[in-house]
Amino acid sequence: MPSNPYTPGQVPRILAGRAVEMRRIEGLLARVATYGELGGPLLLFHAPRGIGKTSLLRAGQRRAVESGFVTAWVACSRQQPVLPEIAHAIGRALDRADAVPSGAAGSSWRGQLERLTVEVGIPGAKVQAQVGRKEATAPPQAAIGILESLLHDASSLVRQHGGAGLLLLLDELHTASADEMSVLLNTLQNLDGERTENPLATVAAGLPVTPEALTRAATFGERSTFVSLDVLSDDDARAALVGPAEAEGVGWSDAALTAIVAESRGYPYLIQLLGSTTWDAAAPASGSRLTLAAVKRGLPVARDQLAAMHRARWGAATRLEQRFLAAMAAAGEGNVTRAAIAAGMGVDSRAISVPRERLIDKGVIEPVGHGLVRFTLPGFGAFVRGLDDA
Ligand SMILES: Nc1ncnc2c1ncn2[C@@H]1O[C@H](COP(=O)(O)OP(=O)(O)OP(=O)(O)O)[C@@H](O)[C@H]1O
Ligand SMILES: [Mg+2]
Fold it and tell me: Which parts of the chain span the membrane according to its record (predicted)?
């Protein structure tokens, strides 16, 4: 019996669509690999939760490894200062790099690696001390200097030992503090001044607030490349369903695909969830086909899972945020105006800025221009309307 190939909440086996975005990453990699120089400014992908930021970054990482890069992955979080994490991730990446030759050449590499790893540990601490001191006006120069030499040393080391260069991947960048963003942007700016010395590319992902946060953190933050990720097109949604099953010798009926594409509205997490619940409902043998009947049998399981996610988001909201969400849900599906939410809460529209910002920060709602917002998770509005205490 083939095993379930769908991956709700995990990196997909097949990354559907995203050809344009992958070309962006490949463009940076090609520049580093071909000219041994900096791949360009920070490339940031931004999107609400569940749209596929991490999946795209992981695919970029795989591509980089195939092209001979050493890659360092940092999952930024509010719990951990980001800059030391970058230092540690680079240390680990160099350590793991299997570009290390055996014999004498290998031991000299090891020696350099160890020296660098030791240095990495200490600058990490220094960087943090600097950042912690909060000199809001001037960016912490020492921290920038340390990160700069760390990235320079690490990327040239990779290159000297026959690698294409270093790829630094920063997921959840919106959780970095303004100071940390400022150090990062200033560092990349300085490295750009000596681009030919720095065979490095930096690719990041974050919630839709990230471009604004970066632009606030450094005046030239807007020189970064911001690319928003959208839901998958119908064709790509179908490919996301067909590909993984095909690899297990299992097909899909057209009606089943059409039903999931409609139900998921192209939201990648839902595509994986519905693919998975359909698969479990059918328990298909190799050579068989997944049908509309199996989709329908799987739906209640998917809805339960989605309801659990809705409950978790609701539970993580403060009382004020919950009132905001309730007013927003009551105003209807789709894009909701600030005025409608304020009216629903019975307050002035200026009074809703704080819960609005916090909910955007948490990825529960997203701005869609002209002051309009919408829910990021399908069905969340209906869930909120169904609550007794909302
Ligand atoms: N291009 C894609 N093709 C197929 N499945 C995808 C694609 N992108 C994402 N997915 C699936 O969608 C779900 C969410 O993906 P991912 O975790 O990458 O999103 P995210 O934007 O990083 O979310 P979060 O903000 O919560 O971290 C996962 O189950 C993943 O398997
Ligand atoms: Mg993610």
Answer: none
Smallest-distance ligand from the CA of 48: 1
Quick one: fold of 19-228? Rossmann fold (3.40.50)
Atom of ligand 1 nearest to the CA of 8: 29
Q: What residues flank ligand 1, with Cβ below 6 Å?
A: 7-12, 15-18, 47, 49-55, 240, 268-269, 272
Domain ranges of the chain: 19-228, 234-312, 316-385
CB atoms within 10 A of CB 311: 12
Structure-token pair, residue 297 = 């049998």
Quick one: what percent of the chain has pLDDT higher than 90? 66
CATH for 234-312 (1.10.8, 1.10.506, 3.30.160, 3.30.70): 1.10.8
User: Residue 308 half-sphere exposure, CB side, CA atoms within 13 Å?
Assistant: 5
Q: How confident is the model at residue 214 (pLDDT cuts 50, 70, 90)?
A: very high
Nearest to 46 by CA among 168, 170, 179, 166: 170
Q: Which atom of ligand 1 is nearest to the CA of 47?
A: 21
120 Cα–ligand 1 center, Å = 32
For residues 205-214, give the mean pLDDT: 92
